[in-house]
């Protein structure tokens, strides 16, 4: 059973730049996959196709039994609820506490206060930040901010977690902490896809890797 399937996918942006060329890939449920490659090679574009931020110019993208390119409005939102996303720059709301940042997505989805209060502690515990619940982002280190963004990504218990260069702004220690949390999430059954150009993290991690170079995907060991 695969959670992600790409068949002959190409993406050309309107300015003519070819971000992906004839990419085919299948990711099984429960896998942890690294996507590596130089800057500008098409890694972010690959993730954007998965969460429906961009549409393929050619080919087919299937995610958790849906075709994101065919979805609009509410039906795209429903798919996105099943996908946790983590970005290099955290994207936290600076005037909101950790608790507020993490619960905001649940409020927006209409969860009750009781349900939110039930889900928040395990999400913060998973990233080791229970004691920072009432802090504001600027009171946290970069590594801590990224861990808040991971808590926010998983508080809705999605089956799929996408992380786009999650360690891009972090030192090696904090980078490894973030990867360890992602591994732990994978061990409880979440499918995890991480883009990175950090070869040392990949070597330390012992997970499958695919490489994208100039828009073309090649399997390194997947
Ligand atoms: P528009 O022309 O309507 O802004 P685009 O698809 O060109 O739509 O751009 C969408 C977003 O992607 C914009 O926020 C833009 O700044 C950003 N963008 C445009 N070109 C690039 C690029 N080469 N690399 C990364 N992001 C880009
Ligand atoms: P990576 O994540 O590996 O750095 P990207 O997927 O961001 O690569 O970009 C792949 C290629 O597509 C690059 O040449 C980039 O400039 C181009 N690109 C990315 N986003 C846009 C956009 N919105 N509009 C036009 N070109 C883009």
TrEMBL record:
Subunit relationships: Homodimer. Forms a membrane-associated complex with FtsX.
Membrane-related topology note: Peripheral membrane protein
Upper taxonomic lineage: Bacteria, Bacillati, Cyanobacteriota, Cyanophyceae, Leptolyngbyales
Name under which the protein is recorded: Cell division ATP-binding protein FtsE
A Pfam family: ABC_tran
Domain ABC transporter residue range list: 4-222
Similarity-based family: Belongs to the ABC transporter superfamily.
The keyword Transferase is assigned to this record: no
PROSITE patterns tied to this protein: ABC_TRANSPORTER_1, ABC_TRANSPORTER_2
UniProt-recorded Gene Ontology molecular function terms: ATP binding; ATP hydrolysis activity; transmembrane transporter activity
Gene3D superfamilies for this protein: P-loop containing nucleotide triphosphate hydrolases
Annotated GO biological process: cell division
Family annotation (NCBIfam families): FtsE
GO-annotated cellular components: plasma membrane
Its job: Part of the ABC transporter FtsEX involved in cellular division.
Localisation per UniProt entry: Cell membrane
Record key words, sorted: ATP-binding, Cell cycle, Cell division, Cell membrane, Membrane, Nucleotide-binding
């Amino acid at each position: 059973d695969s959670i992600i399937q790409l068949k002959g996918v190409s993406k050309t942006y309107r300015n003519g730049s070819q971000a992906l060329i004839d990419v085919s890939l299948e990711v099984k449920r429960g896998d942890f996959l690294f996507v590596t490659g130089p800057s500008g090679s098409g890694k972010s574009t690959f993730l954007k196709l998965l969460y429906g931020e961009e549409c393929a110019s050619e080919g087919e993208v299937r995610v958790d039994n849906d075709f994101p390119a065919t979805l609009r409005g509410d039906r795209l939102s429903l798919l996105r609820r099943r996908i946790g996303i983590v970005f290099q720059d955290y994207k936290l709301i600076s005037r909101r506490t950790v608790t507020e940042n993490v619960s905001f997505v649940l409020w927006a989805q209409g969860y009750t206060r009781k349900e939110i209060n039930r889900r928040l502690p395990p999400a913060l515990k998973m990233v080791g930040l229970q004691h920072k619940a009432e802090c504001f982002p600027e009171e946290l280190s970069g590594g801590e901010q990224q861990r808040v963004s991971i808590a926010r990504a998983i508080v809705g218990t999605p089956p799929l977690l996408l992380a786009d260069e999650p360690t891009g702004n972090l030192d090696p220690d904090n980078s490894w902490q973030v990867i360890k949390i992602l591994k732990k999430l994978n061990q409880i059954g979440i499918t995890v896809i991480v883009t990175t150009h950090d070869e040392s993290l990949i070597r330390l991690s012992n997970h499958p890797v695919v490489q994208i170079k100039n828009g073309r995907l090649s399997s390194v060991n997947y």
